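Q: Given only this backbone (171 positions), what sequence would you predict?
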């Protein structure tokens, strides 16, 4: 549930999660990544006083969104090479929102305890992670696979009428 202070609490899905470094290990049965790491992403609520938020509704908003994510990540201490990767990941997620849902979405970014978090919130269906990179000749389907490979951790959380893809990168 999204509380008035911006915190995400309540029902959420733990099953779709990927960790950087696991990309060479096959997913466990059912497409889930091994659950041998602490649940840092899904147990973290959003500290409203630390998070910056930007909404997007149309494709032309994605350029400004990339600038918002880049500036926010740099300001919070993410190294420039990792900022580029985060910006790519969020751009892919936002593009998926615009292609597969209605109403657009919003992005929240904040840092806490040496970690940078970024949420992409929309009203789309839960996304499945733990997938292979599509074949070279495939026309579509690389966005979520790219996100998994460039972020330290990715999780999908669901709440009343919302889906949140939360990424984490170590600062």
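A: Predicted residues:
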């Amino acid at each position: 549930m999204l509380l008035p202070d911006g915190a995400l609490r309540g029902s959420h899905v733990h099953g779709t999660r990927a960790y950087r470094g696991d990309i060479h290990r096959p997913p466990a049965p059912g497409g889930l990544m091994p659950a041998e790491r602490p649940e840092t992403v899904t147990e973290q609520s959003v500290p409203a006083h630390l998070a910056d938020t930007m909404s997007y509704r149309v494709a032309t908003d994605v350029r400004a969104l990339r600038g918002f994510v880049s500036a926010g990540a740099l300001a919070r201490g993410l190294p420039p090479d990792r900022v580029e990767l985060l910006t790519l990941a969020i751009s892919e997620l936002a593009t998926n929102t615009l292609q597969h849902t209605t109403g657009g979405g919003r992005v929240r970014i904040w840092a806490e305890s040496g970690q940078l978090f970024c949420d992409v919130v929309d009203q789309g269906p839960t996304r499945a992670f733990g997938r292979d990179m599509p074949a070279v000749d495939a026309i579509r389907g690389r966005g979520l696979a790219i996100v998994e490979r460039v972020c330290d951790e990715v999780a999908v959380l669901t709440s009343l009428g919302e889906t949140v893809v939360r990424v984490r990168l170590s600062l």
